[in-house]
TrEMBL record:
Keywords: Membrane, Transmembrane, Transmembrane helix. This is Apolipoprotein N-acyltransferase N-terminal domain-containing protein. GO terms for molecular function: N-acyltransferase activity. Residues 2-164 form the Apolipoprotein N-acyltransferase N-terminal domain. The chain crosses the membrane at residues 13-30, 37-58, 78-99, 106-126, 146-168, 180-199. GO terms for cellular component: membrane. GO terms for biological process: lipoprotein biosynthetic process. It comes from marine metagenome.
Length: 239
């Protein structure tokens, strides 16, 4: 379920609000799991589901621009999805260890563990920086402004924190529950306030009348862009 929710939190598929609850099923399952190995399989299943739904475009790219056959391209795609799924699996393992060491409070290690796995995915073996959790919030401008301070990984950590609090709150006493909810709400609220302030305090907005603009793609095939003889036709598409 987490893999589906996470996939549908990104642009084109769904709504960014889904990201704020997307990890809840995984965290709940890991909390109830009997072993770290079980946590690994839970994370791996979530990762396979998520990346199978979000990097579906890889086979077409490899056949059209890499010269691979359909069978080879889909085999490479399968291997890539399996590799990428290892990072959510390692995240689940990290949570499993934290829960066994610190109890339910160990859930709050999740933001740091998630960011660590995303850093690994960005840099290992030339990196694969697509589909980072923080990117799901790009349509929400007030929240996305946080990236100007802490980067996309900071946004990822914020979203994970919200998921953690949803899972943590029912498992503790009322007083601890309200402290956790209050802490997370304050951080998210502060983020929104900062974002709203930043959106309306830019020096470019101090004078003149705001103008809404949009950029439209001309639906130009990639191989046409690489063809020098197509330059005039491409230019005329936009002009």
């Amino acid at each position: 379920v987490s893999g589906i929710l996470l996939a549908f939190s990104f642009p084109r598929f769904g709504h960014p609000i889904l990201a704020w609850v997307s990890l809840v099923p995984l965290l709940m399952a890991v909390t109830r799991s009997q072993s770290v190995l079980a946590a690994f399989w839970l994370g791996l299943t979530m990762g396979v589901t998520h990346f199978a739904l979000t990097v579906y475009w890889i086979p077409q790219v490899m056949t059209e621009y890499g010269g691979l056959s359909d069978v080879t391209a889909w085999l490479v795609h399968f291997l890539l999805v399996a590799y990428l799924a290892l990072f959510p699996a390692l995240f689940a393992v990290g949570i499993g260890f934290a829960l066994r060491r610190f109890g339910v409070v160990g859930l709050y290690a999740a933001p740091a563990i998630w960011v660590t796995t995303e850093l690994g995915r960005i840099h290992l073996f030339t990196g694969f920086p697509w589909e980072l959790l923080g990117y799901s919030q790009t349509p929400v401008l007030a929240v996305a402004q946080l990236a100007s301070v802490v980067g996309v990984l900071g946004l990822s950590a914020l979203v994970v924190l919200a998921n953690v609090t949803i899972v943590f709150a029912p498992l503790v006493t009322v007083s601890r529950r309200w402290r956790a909810v209050g802490f997370t709400t304050a951080i998210i609220g502060g983020t929104v306030i900062f974002g709203a302030w930043r959106l309306h305090s830019d020096s470019l907005l101090e004078h003149g009348t705001p103008l809404r603009v949009a950029a439209l793609q001309g639906n130009i095939a990639q191989h046409d862009k690489w063809n020098p003889t197509s330059s005039d036709r491409i230019l005329s598409t936009y002009i």
